[in-house]
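Predict structure. Chain length: 220.
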Amino acid sequence: MKMICGLIVYILFAGACTRCGGGTAMTSEEGTGTRRDNVVPDKLAPSQYVSWIEDKNNGMEKEKKIDDIVFSVQYRPVPYVICEEEKKNEISDSLAKRRSAELSGMQYMNLKIEVPQGELLKYGLTKNAQYEDRVNYFSFGMQKDIQLVEAGDTLPCLLFHYERVYDIAPYGVFLLAFPKGKDAEGDKTLIFSDNEFNKGIIKFHFEGKDIKKLPQLETI
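Prediction complete.
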């Protein structure tokens, strides 16, 4: 029951969090060549914690550009999810512990797809009928094309929510949740088979050493 409640609340609150083949893939790290080994703070206040997780130099966000489309994945540790739910710079220790217990059965990520201009839902379409097909795929069908591999196991995407942007926007955000595997803090690779823009199989690798060194959330 706690897991179900956690998933429901995650959908409700995470929906407010939008920052969020062919071709040659290039990660943001490869593109900039600026990956650095930062000194990790022991604890961070909520706003600082969110900023730290979203800093690409800390290994929790991966990006690949294939032709004209940018695919990015944000790893969302449980304290980050709690910060995004509360939207406060002070979170009580009791609340953090309660929500951590409710959310701890899953691991969370966001997948973002961005095109250079126009609306993602209409990008590259040649017929009006294709629009509804894309909406349906993004809302329901795409879930089966996403997996998480860790410790030799392939984990299904159990929670999937398309955060639809009704204004014209060149991007879309997909909220994902996977079961915890044998090694929740080990190396993991998100695999997305892009069947909409025909970019093939796209992989985003997260290193266990980066996950193990995450700072703690400062509570009151």
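Summary: The mean pLDDT is 86.
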